[in-house]
Amino acid sequence: MRRVARWRSAGGARGRVLAALALLTAAVLTFHSAVPNAVGRLGSLVEAFLPWLGLVVALLLVAALVRRSAVALVALLLPALAWLGQFGGLLLPSERGAPHLTVVQHNVSDENPDPAGTAAALAAAAPELVALEEVTPSALPAYAAALESRYPHHAVEGTVGLWSKYPLTGVRRLDIKPAGIGEGWSRGLRAGVSTPEGEVAVYVAHLPSVRIRPSGFASQLRDESARLLGAAVAAEPVDRVVLLGDLNGTVDDRGLAPLTSRMAAPRRGFALSWPASFPVSRIDQVLARSATLAEIRTLPATGSDHLPVVARITWEPAAGS
């Protein structure tokens, strides 16, 4: 009893402040969609870095132990459970079983000094599909030459490209250009891929960049592009769909809801991909419809400011089968 009393007295007012911060963290984790976006798009900014609230929980835990505050420690159970409920599954071991499709997604950077080496590194992961963004006209021949032996089928529209082991059909440019962006902006394609399990519609996209400015989180152009892309996916007649791209947002960001509300996200792995020097966010995404994304992980750094990601996809049984 003396020891408990000592903890209570040592915590004092600062312990109650820590408890209040713990409750606030739990509220943001649980009800982040209620954080308003009207002023500075604060909600999207919070959601872009939502997993990092786990670090806040850890820091509060250290402070509670230093202050010997039992009240703060009890309060910290709430954000800890909220974080585990939302992100704990990503930490579990990857699910066993051979995937139906393995894909690599990479923003290769328009300043990549070694496109051939980058392409070789991606092919070494042995995916069936490789999607690239920021492919410049000058670098395209190097990517094509390095990938053509393993991926005889490819399509490029603007600055995005898809390389495939399987035949491509119905390739077309996607109109995902938001109003306010000038002519010549082409960052999306759609292609049918004839896999051994049947036809798959594959979308490759590079959404507009976002910026953190004094006025707030500037994501309006990206959000508009995401709405256009979401509409294209919704209208896709092929049941199985895979989206590969630099979406400049995390799967928690409400700005990508037109996509994440229609498609499955990876079940295992954080795969923080940007910036390559110290990754803090996964903005390079693999999403799928009528499928389970068993795992996503990063590959070693290339000459890009993004890390490549590789994902394993398993198709869901067709309706009526």
TrEMBL record:
Residues 105-306 form the Endonuclease/exonuclease/phosphatase domain. The chain crosses the membrane at residues 49-66, 73-92. Keywords: Endonuclease, Hydrolase, Membrane, Nuclease, Transmembrane, Transmembrane helix. This is Endonuclease/exonuclease/phosphatase family protein. GO terms for molecular function: endonuclease activity. The keyword Secreted does not apply. InterPro entries: Endo/exonu/phosph_ase_sf, Endo/exonuclease/phosphatase.
